Amino acid sequence: MGKHALLSASSSHRWLNCPPSARLCEQYEDNGSDYAAEGTDAHSLGEYKLKTALGIKAKDPTANLTYYSEEMEECAAGYAAYILELLETAKQTCTDPVVLIEQRLDFSKYVEGGFGTGDCVIIADGTLHIVDYKHGQGVLVEATDNPQMKLYALGTLELFDGIYDIDKVSMTIYQPRRDNVSTHTVFKESIYQWAEEVLKPTAEIAYAGGGEYNCGEWCQFCKAKQECRKRAERNMELAKLEFKCPPLLEDDEIESILGKIDDLISWASDIKDYALQAALGGKRWFGWKVVEGKSNRKYVNENAVAQTVQSAGYDPYEHKVMGITAMEKALGKTRFADLLGGLVEKPQGKPTLVPEGDKRPAINTAKNDFMEVNTNG
């Protein structure tokens, strides 16, 4: 069996919604990305921090982490602390909870060859806890109705249901760079019901390469997203829209466009990236050529530059106050708060239009302010 299952937990959101994409993606190499590599480093550090906190001997991976940073250190420490809190909660109702870290979880009873790796699982009487660490900050991940989490739950229940008196499953996404800790708790029977009624039949279709292509937010991590005809057709429908000046569009037309425009922009960007990579590989696109983009000058050797400028009687260094993160690290959080708490502010972020389901509170607009004044007056 390969490193990744055809129908893996991590790709389940995609293949459950678009079954034929599973076999389609087989023909593409897994080239990875800097984001994925950074996530791998973050998981390694989180695993080390958690094992150390639990008194399990583990080798510090920091020196070998390409993307290690102070932020990653804080995220990993916070993750370990969160797991310890969950463990203490579990101990209140169970004398011998078990903590599994980076555990291979097999759910092949429902999905052919299906398995995945659970970041942390706490098995205890009463509630089974599944925690998945997400280091990315681009996409907010929710635990509610999250198929990856439900597959991890199935894999864990396969091992421990019956040994422990489990009646509920608590699934948590820990996403520190988005200040997101999303938890969804369900009765274990609902997990089994979903497995039989939705998961198993859909997995059989996906494994056989059948089903209908379907586009949605799950396309983002699909290897075939640049060339997928179904995705192209969907986005071209919007692109073909005969745009008039926005003031002449009806409100419902603008609302419809707002719901699709991000997908259109993402698709267009993917097509450009695909065409560029193909051109760099020797592909000729009629009417297009590859040129050198704009670049900025840089020093060949900064130390040599500093020495040369100093020898000429000049100061080669900029002098400025350390950044907030660096200052907090230098002083320590408590000392930083004591000394500089009153000198730090967080400005209001730039207004952004988002779907109504977004968790952030709505800000007051000019119309809202006017209505509040009239109401109070």
Structure report:
The chain has 377 residues and is an alpha+beta fold. 44% of the residues lie in helices and 12% in strands. The chain has twelve helices and five strands. It has helices spanning 12-17, 21-24, 34-53, 70-91, 147-160, 188-207, 229-239, 251-280, 302-311, 324-331, 333-340, 366-376, and strands at residues 98-106, 115-123, 126-133, 166-175, 180-187. The chain has a five-stranded mixed sheet with strand order 1-2-3-4-5. α7 (229-239) crosses α8 and α10 packs across α11 (333-340). The model has no long low-confidence stretch (mean pLDDT 87).
Radius of gyration: 26 Å
Q: Main sheet, how many strands, which sense, barrel?
A: 5 strands, mixed
Tell me what the CATH architecture of the largest domain is.
Alpha-Beta Complex
Provide mean pLDDT, rounded: 87
| Structure summary, number of beta strands | 5
The SS-based structural class is alpha+beta
Helicity range of the residues?
40-55%
Number of helices: 12
Q: Low-confidence spans: pLDDT under 50, at least 5 residues?
A: none
Q: Element order, helices and strands?
A: HHHHEEEHEEHHHHHHH
Named CATH topology of the largest domain: Lambda Exonuclease, Chain A
